[in-house]
Each structure stands twice: as C-alpha cells, then as structure tokens.
Amino acid sequence: MIRVAISGAAGRMGRSLIQAVCQYEGITLGAASECPDSPLIGSDAGEIGRVGVLQVPLVDNLDKSKEAFDLIIDFTRPEITLANLVLCRDQGKAMVIGTTGFTQEQRQKITKAAIEIPIVLAPNMSVGVNLCLKLLETAARVLKDEVDIEIIEAHHRHKVDSPSGTALRMGEVVAKTLGRDLNQCAVYGRQGVSGERPRESIGFSSLRAGDIVGEHTVIFAAEGERIEISHKASSRMTFALGAMRASQWVSDKPPGLYDMQDVLGLLKKVN
Ligand SMILES: NC(=O)C1=CN([C@@H]2O[C@H](COP(=O)(O)OP(=O)(O)OC[C@H]3O[C@@H](n4cnc5c(N)ncnc54)[C@H](OP(=O)(O)O)[C@@H]3O)[C@@H](O)[C@H]2O)C=CC1
Ligand SMILES: O=C(O)C1=N[C@H](C(=O)O)C[C@H](O)C1
Fold first, then answer.
1. What family is this protein classified in (predicted)?
2. What is the distance in A from the centroid of ligand 2 to the CA of 177?
C-alpha cells in the first residue's frame, strides 16, 4: 500500500485528490496539509474531501507527519511545492508535482532534486491532454511551416498563472517538433497595431471566467483549411486520477525527473 500525503488538501485539486485516493486501489492517505493560516488545520481530511472520516488531521507542515507517508502529491503554488521538495529530498521520498507557474530557476531546483529522488512533474495529468500532446507532435510534423499556430486556453476565474502550464507545454511540443525555440517565437496576446503575423510565431491567448475547469485548443490554420486539436476537462477528477496513476507508477522508480508521458508509456513516436 502506497501512503501519500496531499499538500493543499482543502484546495480545488486537494479535495478532488482526497476523493481520488479513496477510489484508487493500492493507495491510502497518510497525511494532508494546508496553509498555516487556515482555520481548517486539525480538521479531518476525509471530511474536507466529503468522503467520511479518514482519521487524517490537516497539518500546517508535512514535516510534522513525515513518518506517515511515502510520497507527496503537490498541487499548490510554486513556493509551497519547493518547500515540500526540500522535505522529500531530505527524507528520500518521491514526489508527484502538478503545480504550474514555475520560473526557470524554480524548475532547475526540481531538476536538481530529481538526481536524488524520483519526481513526476506534469502540468496536466489527464490522459486526454497527454494524448493530445502526441497528436500535436504528429500534426506539426505533417503540417510543417505551412500553417499559423495559435494556442487558446480557458480556465476558472481563480487561476493565478497564465498562460496555463498545459498551453505552454503544448507550445513547447509544437515548437520542438518544428525546430523552433519557443522563447523566440511565442507571442502572448495582441493589442493595438501588432502588424502582420509572422508565420513562425506561436500565439497564446488566455481566457479567465467563472468555473471553467480547463480547456485547450491548438489551431493549425492554412489557406483553405484549419485543423483544431482540443481538450475540454469537465471535472478535476480527471487530473486527480492521473495523479494517482503517477503516484503508483513512481513509487518503485529510481531517482529521476519523469513526465506523465513516461507514466502513460507515450514516449514512443506515434505516426
Ligand atoms: N497538473 C495538473 O493536472 C493540474 C494542475 N493544476 C495546478 O495545481 C495548482 C493548484 O490549483 P488549485 O487546486 O486550483 O489551487 P487552490 O488555490 O485551490 O489550491 C491550493 C491550496 O494550497 C493551499 N496552501 C497555501 N499555502 C499552503 C501551505 N503552506 N501548505 C499547504 N497548502 C497550502 C491553499 O490555501 P489558501 O487558499 O488558504 O492559500 C489552497 O487551499 C495550480 O498551479 C494549478 O495550475 C490544477 C489542476 C490540474
Ligand atoms: O489551474 C487549473 O485549474 C489548471 N491548471 C493546469 C494548467 O495550468 O495547465 C491544468 C488544468 O488545465 C487546470
């Protein structure tokens, strides 16, 4: 039985993760944490996730429960993830990271820690999005430089980072396949007299409204036809169950930085 700790347990993803643990065979909830200021500290995680009492009280720091878990699942904010990363590295525990919005420097810290512990880091843990990443690779390979590429994403009004981690990953996959450097060709929104579109640019547009769970569309537009690859999440359980799959997969892996593509066995080229 793999004992997981959920960081940010009362958050949108935290609550779905508690529910997913209860649905998933071979995984149990060992610990759960929340913001030190939260009035929910001490409450039972099962009650927070509406799955009945689990006898796991929320702590303000997972260091306090370190004997109770083998792995941390973290869907929070970059600075919280990095604090948990130090704990996991010091304790030799694995990590599943779903948090997005890391800076280059923060990503390097994760890469460095992965020399010592196994880490799955993925901006989107749904099977559907990870399949879309393979489809995008194929589309870019076939369409080459003959199309304009635009990425549109929509999320709920509480989301703090943009573009979404998934949109950026989609851009990276397409840019890499076409031999472009995303740092050079990305265009984030347009306003005013922005000029004619250079063919090689990859455009990003972000929409924030209401309770949208997460929607991504990549448009490949040519003269006379347009291809769109879209994914629409209607429940956070799709991400949470992906995180369970990643937890089970990573629990017996050697140190290293892994992606959801590793977990799902999608790394081989699809034609
Ligand atoms: N990879 C994937 O598949 C997915 C990734 N995400 C990413 O996951 C992240 C979280 O998203 P979401 O659940 O919507 O965000 P939320 O803000 O709902 O959840 C984060 C939680 O962490 C809590 N928190 C704050 N400080 C601490 C602390 N020191 N220790 C423990 N918990 C703390 C927050 O509390 P408080 O609100 O009081 O600050 C909040 O409850 C985002 O980066 C998002 O992009 C989301 C969905 C899928
Ligand atoms: O913040 C969210 O909600 C989501 N964030 C992830 C991202 O930034 O890509 C994944 C998902 O779309 C939901």
1. Belongs to the DapB family.
2. 23
